[in-house]
Automatic annotation (TrEMBL):
SMART domains registered for this protein in UniProt: S_TKc (SM00220)
Species in which this protein is naturally found: Cucurbita moschata (Winter crookneck squash)
Protein name from the UniProt record: Serine/threonine-protein kinase-like protein At5g23170
Taxon lineage: Eukaryota, Viridiplantae, Streptophyta, Embryophyta, Tracheophyta
Alphabetic keyword roster: ATP-binding, Kinase, Nucleotide-binding, Serine/threonine-protein kinase, Transferase
GO molecular function, one term: ATP binding
Gene name of the encoded protein: LOC111458232
InterPro entries: Kinase-like_dom_sf, Prot_kinase_dom, Protein_kinase_ATP_BS, Ser/Thr_kinase_AS
Family of the protein in this entry: Belongs to the protein kinase superfamily.
Amino acid sequence: MIEFFDYQHLLCATDGFSAASLIGKGSHGSVYKAILKDNTVVAVKKPLQTNDYSKLENEARVLWSLRQTPLVVNFLGTSLDSANNKLLVMEFMPNGSLHDLLLAPVTWPKRLQIITQIARAVEFLHQANPLVIHRDIKAENILFDSNWNLKLADFGLAVSPSELRSYAGQPAGTIGYLDPCYTTPSKLSTKSDVFSFGVVVLEVISGRKAMDISKSPASIVEWARPLIERRNFDGIYDGRIALPEYLAGRMRKAVELAGRCVCVEQGKRPSMGEILEAMEMETSCCCIERFKFFQNRVWSGLAVVVGMRRRRRRLKMEANLKWCSSRQGAPNC
C-alpha cells in the first residue's frame, strides 16, 4: 500500500535534509536517511535539480507498476514539498551497495550467490507485465538490506518497450555499463540490460571497477574480453582471495557466461531467463561439489588415520616377535 508522507515530518526526520543525513547521491537525485516519529527508518529521494522531477515521476510510475517483490527496493510512498514537488519514500537499505561490498575481498560462494540473485532480479523485470528495461544496472544500484538480501534500486531511467514508440530522448545509462549497440532509442532492448549485467558479473568475479582510468584498458569489458578468448580465467579472478578447488569449474562457467553477455552483437547475448537457469544450476552444482570435496577430504583423512593405526599395530607386532625371538624358551613365549 502506497502511503502519503507529510513533508514537514520528513523535514524533521532528515534534520532538514542535512548533509549528515545524506546517504547517497547519483546523477538523478540525492537520497537521505530519515528516522520517523515511530523510529521507522526510511530513505527519502529528492532530485538534484529543483526544476527536474521527471526521473522521480518515472521511478514512481515504474515501481507502482511492479508487483511487490523481495528482489526490488520497496516503494513506500510519496510526499510533496512546499512547492508541490514530489519526493519518493523508499525502503532503507542499511548495508550499502554492491560497489561498497566489493571494496573488500568477498568469499567465492558469496560471489556466486550474488550473481544468481542479480540475475533473478533482472529476470523479474523482464517478465513483468508490462516488461521493464532498467537501463542503469550497475554495482551502485544493487543494494543490501539488514539481512544482506540483495535488491535492485534506482528506476529513474527504466522504461517499457510500449513507451519507446513515443520516447524521443537520447540513450541513457552509465559509462562502462552502457550497451554499445544502444545508439538510438529504437536499439534499446532487454539485451541492453543483459550487457550491463555481464559487466557487473565481471566486477564481482574480478574485484575490478567497470571503469578505472588508473588501469589500461580502463574498461573492464575491453580488459576481460581477450582474457576470456584465450581462456585465461586465472587472469580474471580476484587475486585478493584464493579460489577454492571445488569452485573452479563453476566460476569458469560464470566468466564464460559474462563473456556472452558483453558480446558486441546483441543477438548473440543470452536472455536473462537463460542466464538465470544457468546460474541456478551452477549454484546447486556448487553445493554438491562442495559436499563431495569435503567428503573426499574426510575420507582421505580417515584413510590416513587408519593407515597410521595399522602401521603402528604392525610395528608393535614385529617388536613383540623380535622380543620373543630373543627370549626363546621363556615361559611366556
